[in-house]
From TrEMBL:
<dbReference type="Pfam" id="PF03514">
    <property type="entry name" value="GRAS"/>
</dbReference>
<keyword id="KW-0805">Transcription regulation</keyword>
<feature type="region of interest" description="SAW">
    <location>
        <begin position="437"/>
        <end position="518"/>
    </location>
</feature>
<dbReference type="InterPro" id="IPR005202">
    <property type="entry name" value="TF_GRAS"/>
</dbReference>
<feature type="short sequence motif" description="VHIID">
    <location>
        <begin position="254"/>
        <end position="258"/>
    </location>
</feature>
<feature type="domain" description="FHA">
    <location>
        <begin position="354"/>
        <end position="409"/>
    </location>
</feature>
<protein>
    <recommendedName>
        <fullName>FHA domain-containing protein</fullName>
    </recommendedName>
</protein>
<dbReference type="InterPro" id="IPR000253">
    <property type="entry name" value="FHA_dom"/>
</dbReference>
<comment type="similarity">
    <text>Belongs to the GRAS family.</text>
</comment>
<keyword id="KW-0804">Transcription</keyword>
Length: 519
């Protein structure tokens, strides 16, 4: 892991490990928001203990700054109590097992299909496995070969589906998708789990049931997903550090305009950093409306109250507000006519990350970035864009088939990276997080609509008014340290013509990319 004797972090990224010092309460009611999926509003949310006591027995994959020891960070596996009652027929048909189990470690282990479904591995099972290992060597090898054959067959089917859709062979595509359904498996290999999400309406009720039951643990699943997996933490660190790095010393007020504030989880570390500089912070959340943005599980007033309480505890002057993008542009124009201000603007847009639910309309992203560009022709400031969507890199695909394959590779990398960070036998806890935060973005129809709209959404062009902000060596080192790339298959790289992009990769596949421009 990259270390330096004189290495000093530019801001307290290590506090992302434990949000308790910030007093940020992410316990939010999940009310069937369309950002994730449509579920029954009456679903009961399981209660969870305080954030400081809810975790146990897990190690975060990155160390605190200036420290060689790994941080002991807890993961609330015991809080996942989603019952899977009612899935018996689906699991039997898919060849996964004949019994269903709750998402809880307290459930007794079953002797059937223990390697797949049981949340614990008993010592008796281990002894039994050792005893019969030699006698079962050939059958096990045969099962492994069958599994490989199934993966290859599924890959060929998915490729054929993309080609059929590209050629407008709708009937053939539907037939192929039904074949994919037969090989989909919510607890199988990565490609099988993707196939389960992609599959036709034949299993829609099964997917809806998994989503409904998983949503009962939405609050704890959200915390666990953000804490354990690096996608959100990496994007937020890269954007925050770019803002602090670029902000001039003579600026009295930092005015952040946030495309999607959500629960506000990005901003506690920046609030602490601004308090240390004795500056004033203004945070404007853009209000898009449900007709454009969908219903959100996060209540703005709750987020505002928590962030203001946090700022008050640090002695920071903070103003949090919500307004439409046009209203913001008009206000800034009026301020300019009145003689301007000493505000330094930061337009922040983070989209396409799994914990944010379904990807937002790319047209809205373009509207936000275009207005930001126009405003920064008259004001000092920066634009930060964190993107976990694959559309931009797949824009030049030769056809829908290539675009579809690119989407498959992206989500296969996400699922495999999740699997590497979550203990192998905790299948059901991982499945709950996949249902809530990955599955909603895996849709054959949605991918086809994205492809059709590709020509309507243009690349952001900073033009001559904005210059790219090159990633500093310190920011690169901190990001590498955060994801612990020497300990796993993650990698952090600089990109862009002048090194203005910071990208998180998994085995060569870009998962998140953060770019920044300033005037």
């Amino acid at each position: 892991m990259m270390q330096s004797d004189n290495f000093s972090p530019s801001w307290p990224f290590n506090n992302l490990v434990d949000l308790e010092p910030y007093g940020l309460d992410m316990d939010v009611p999940f009310d069937g928001c369309s950002s994730f999926a449509s579920i029954d509003d009456s679903s009961e949310i399981s209660s969870i203990p305080p954030f400081s006591t809810m975790f146990s027995d897990a190690i975060f994959p990155y160390p605190a700054s200036g420290c060689d020891d790994q941080l002991q960070v807890t993961i609330p596996w015991d809080e996942f109590s989603v019952p899977l009652v009612g899935l018996d027929s689906m699991l039997t048909d898919d060849g996964v097992g004949e019994e269903s189990f709750p998402l809880s470690q307290s459930q007794p282990c079953s002797s059937q299909r223990q390697d797949v479904w049981s949340p614990c591995l008993s010592s008796e099972a281990s002894v039994h496995t050792t005893t019969v290992q030699s006698s079962l060597a050939m059958p096990v090898l045969g099962e492994a070969m069958m599994g490989i054959d199934n993966q290859l067959a599924l890959l060929h089917l998915l490729t054929a589906y993309g080609e059929a859709k590209e050629k407008n062979q709708t009937d053939l595509a539907e037939v192929i998708l039904r074949c994919v359904t037969e090989k989909g498996n919510p607890v199988g290999e990565a490609l099988e789990r993707i196939a389960f999400c992609l599959s036709s309406q034949d299993v829609q009720n099964q997917r809806d049931y998994l989503m409904q039951e998983s949503s009962k643990n939405f609050d704890v699943a959200f915390k666990t997903f953000y804490q354990l997996l690096p996608y959100g933490r990496f994007a937020h660190f890269a954007a925050n550090s770019a803002i602090l790095e670029a902000m001039p010393n003579n600026a009295d007020v930092l005015h952040i305009v946030d495309f999607d504030i959500g629960v506000g989880i990005q901003w506690p570390p920046l609030i602490e950093a601004m308090a240390r500089q004795h500056k004033t912070l203004r945070l404007t959340s853009i209000r898009w409306g449900e007709e454009h943005f969908g219903h959100s599980p996060w209540r703005f007033q709750d987020t505002k109250g928590q962030l203001c309480d946090l700022a008050r505890s640090f002695g920071l002057k903070l103003k949090v507000e919500e307004m439409g993008i046009e209203d913001l542009a008009n206000e800034l124009e009026g301020m300019k006519k009145r003689g301007g201000s000493r505000e330094w603007l930061a337009f922040n847009c983070v989209v396409g990350l799994p914990h944010m639910g379904k990807s937002k309309n790319r047209k809205l992203v373009n509207v936000f970035l275009d207005i930001a560009k126009q405003v920064l022709t008259r004001y000092r400031g920066i634009i930060t864009l964190g993107d976990g969507d694959t559309c931009e890199k797949l824009r030049d695909s030769s056809g829908f088939g290539a675009f579809f394959n690119g989407q498959l590779m992206h989500y296969q990398a996400i699922i495999e990276s999740m699997e590497s960070d979550i203990t192998k036998h905790l299948v059901q806890a991982r499945m709950a997080m996949e249902c809530l935060f990955v599955g909603p973005n895996i849709s054959a129809q949605a991918w086809f609509e994205k492809w059709e709209q590709m020509n309507e959404t243009c690349r952001f062009d900073a033009g001559t008014t904005l210059g790219s902000l090159k990633v500093s060596r310190e920011r690169l080192m901190e990001a590498k340290e955060m994801v612990g790339e020497k300990e796993n298959s993650y990698d952090v790289r600089m990109g862009g013509n002048s090194g203005y992009e910071l990208a998180l990769e998994w085995r060569g596949n870009i998962l998140v990319k953060v770019s920044s421009w300033r005037n």
